Amino acid sequence: MAGADTIKITKANFESEVLKSDKPVLIDFWAQWCGPCRMVGPVIEELAADYAGKAKVGKVNVDEENELASMFRVMSIPTILVFKGGQVVEKAVGVRHKTELAGMLDKNL
Fold it and tell me: Which CATH number goes with the domain that contains 75?
C-alpha cells in the first residue's frame, strides 16, 4: 500500500533507509485491518510527494514487521515517528491532520 514516493520499510532496509538517512524520515506504522490507518494513508502519500527530495516518507506494516514495531514500542496504530540522525525526534499516535504531520517534518528539515 505504498505510493510512488513512499518507501516500504522492512527490517532488511531499515538501517539504510532510516538510520543512515541524511534526510529526516517520517514512518507510518500501520496495518491493513486498521480503519484509522486507512484514513491516514492518503495523507502519508501526499506528504511523500510533497517532501520528495527533502525528506523520506515510509510505511511499516506492523503485521509483516512486528520486530520493528516492538523495537519502537508501537502499541497503537497508526503511530507516526520522525527520525533524524538515526534517532526518533517526533512521535504522534492516532489520526493526525496533514498540517500537523508536515509540521513534524518541517521542524526537522
Answer: 3.40.30.10
